[in-house]
User: What shape does this take?
Amino acid sequence: MLEEGRISGGQALMLNITMIIATTLISAPTIVANHARQDAWLAMLLATLLALPIAWITAKLGTLFPTKTLVEYTEDILGKWPGKLLSLLYLLWFINICSVMIREYGNFIVDAFMMETPLMIVNILGTALAAYTVKKGLEVLARVNQIFLPLIIVSILLVFLLALPEMKLERFLPVFEAHWVDIFRGAMAPLTWMGEISTFAMLIPFLVQPGQARHTTVITILLVGLFFTLLVVASVATFGPIIDNMIYPVLSTTRVVNIAQFIERPEPLIMAIWITGGLLKISIFYYVIVLGCAQWLTLKDYRPLVLPVGVILVALSSIVARNILELVHFIAYVWPPYALLTFEFGIPLTLLVIALVRKQGGNGP
Amino acid sequence: MAALLSKFRRPRRLNTLVPKPGKSNGDQNNQSQIDPGHASQSRNLSSNIEDNLRSLKGIFHQCSDIIFREFLFAQREQIKLALIYIDGLIDKSQVSDQIIRALSLEVPVATDETTITKKNAWHYIKMRGLCVHQLQESQRLPDIVSAVLSGNCVLLVDGHPNALIVDSRSWAARSIEESKTETVIRGPRESFVETLRTNTSMLRRKIKNPNLKIEVLKLGEVTQTDIAILYINGIANEGLVQEAKKRLSDIKIDAVLDSGYIQELIRDNPNSMFPTISHTDRPDRVAAHLLEGRVAIMVDGTPMVLVAPYLFIEAIQTPEDYYEPAIFMSGVRVLRIISLVIALTLPSLYIAITSFHQEMLPTPLLLSLAAQREAVPLPVFVEAFIMEFAFEIIREAGIRLPREVGQAVSIVAALIIGQAAVQAGLVAGATIIVVALTAMASFTVYYSGSITFRLLRFPLMFLAASFGLFGMIGGIIAMVVYMTSLRSFGVPYLAPLGPTIIGDLKDSAVRVPWWAMHKRPHLIGQNNPQREATGMQPKPPQQKNN
Amino acid sequence: MVFPIIMAFLVIILLEVPGLVSKKMWRELTAFAALLIIGMALSITHTLGVMIPNPNKYIEILFKPLVEWLSK
Assistant: This one.
């Protein structure tokens, strides 16, 4: 095995949670409220429900091939050359998302906090830090995640707690104003984010007990769904349906915090959350890319590939969008149908059907 | 040419500055000296006492403190005895009374003289004559030499090749005092001294169990320092003990003067600036560590005892935490964690916020800081760096100061740094406060835990000055990633935070009361996880049925 | 602007290649070289201002009808 490390169920759960929420928690409510307006919370719940099948498919494929990652078992299911082609497409897909994420990451830091710093510097530094983490291996990544994720979650909850005085329940009225089609549209983007759980397929073999994959994925979706709903509820309660015009509603929420004129504008907290969380998420996808490349080329070690892949990611992060509007347009409108139809849902479903029809794989332990 | 080549092919020997026997061709005194570590040089004593004395006198030539005392056994002219010892390392009254007097005067009184012959003299001496508490015998010359050098007396008997080694060690040593580096308000005050036997006896008094194993070995080719490995059989991990013993026996160095030498030679991650082996001079700490399943290494000649493995969380743990009530000490623990964070990040935070993120400060504070910064010519980073550096100079000087000049110098330093710099307009008052707070914060943990952070705040300051808060947080993340990847004797360095082990969190940021600490630390005490019965919380007595 | 990029590449090569060569990992070395060349090409051309086609644009074209429906 390329990776000797093993992660426990709890570590995998936390990795999955970070994988999904870390970069979305800043701008999630906007995209949903765009369609669903003040019923955005409904859209979130719908998305959670619809994401459960994706979680189940990922886990099922994982238990059918308990010692192989996605890149490896596509060859088993489809045969060597079609499988290798599909794996390559998957790798390109991961590289695509990762570079978009790095772009998002740097964009937020530069837009909100350090306006004079060139975007590329932040991207390069962030990717370099992620490269360092990835080079240390999966176990280190999982452990660092265990250290930081609780801090991130607590900080977000703290921010919302502090903003409580500004929240009004009337902003949710009228309820069910949006058409169900709009709610469905609003649920697409969160569904796509939650669908990123399909990336977990690359990590299932490294669980100490691969049979736990099903629990891990389902609980992840439920927890993430809960958290997103909370996020949306807090944002809508603070501002009302106008959040569809804000780029960073959670940041704006921190800006209204004002406790006794002393605890004002805890923005550094958001910055810290974003830097750590975003970095961890980038590291996870970066690791998946590097591991996938090494497995596709059947190398003995993935570590030498870390730096070149980093260069590619940084270069792409500058190419994928020319400005923030294009970026948000891509994430909100282009990505959901693209991702869902293909790599997150469509293809895994097809793979699972083929595998079951060909009676492949054994039931994992 | 062949000689040159052969020089490279021969396995390297340590250059211990002790010439090997037979190779000292141009040696003036023509005495053969023994390299104590070289096994093939073992020579045995002969039965003739004159030969033995001659060879020993040759080995100890020019050692003026080695005394050779020849006397007779039981007043018999034929049975010569010789006593060899080092003046200064032996208990003089014991040697005179219990060896010389017992053998020359009291044996003839106690037994019938005629039964003593040269042949059974040795047996008589060993079993009937010597009134000493510890006795060994040996025939090998290196053992004899080593015994004499350790402070024992060696008794040679004419006509017998076996020598008797009598333990009569006593020398001037520092008495047991309070620890100067690890002080507590509540708890035992004694600390280790430089004598190995005294230290092991202190631990024996704390752990009265035959499972406390103390294994000794000698390290250091020239110094032949005694090292003791301590562990509790049945609690300590077998693999850990074996690994520790293996690493110690692999050490080949000429001298071991302090446990620090060994620490650098056996640690994981030798180039890392985070210590992975701890050292302490308190017996209660060592005892507690041994009871958790760790291994202790004692070195003769230094009070600092090494304990392996060492996890990062121990930097905020002190022995007092376990003696005072849990609630108070949990608060103190939290204080220590905050202090550590302050010690590491406060200067960087200050630099980052004043240079890049001024909007994060509340307005009144911002105005006051801006006013101060107006008056100062230097950029914040340079100013903070100079002040921090100056404080490090003061701190280091404070350790080396002779006591007499201490007072005067500290006043001058305080005046220079504090008053004069601010009044001259070189430094802002806020910077002084930051530097002082950082310094004080780093003193809340014991010295060894804080040196790393003292050093690391300088790169962090640089990162903060270059990239603001992003740089600082990135630096901290890089540091955490690095720490997570370290292992100390196989245990992950940041456990129980790194791999989150819920059970071990009972003793991290908080200290749960003793009735809740049922299990030993998970990764270290696997051999014997249960340390306390459940249900030990004090409860009011149950109502008893009649 | 191109010069720091070339410096960065030299640093990357210096960091990785000696280790790979000494351990005789030729496959890994070729993969490393291939990926690095792709990365270099992308970075340098992008820095020099050459417009590199954005893959996301093509994806958008591919899924145009759904994108339209979603953004109504």
Summary: Residues 447-484 of chain B form the longest helix (38 residues).
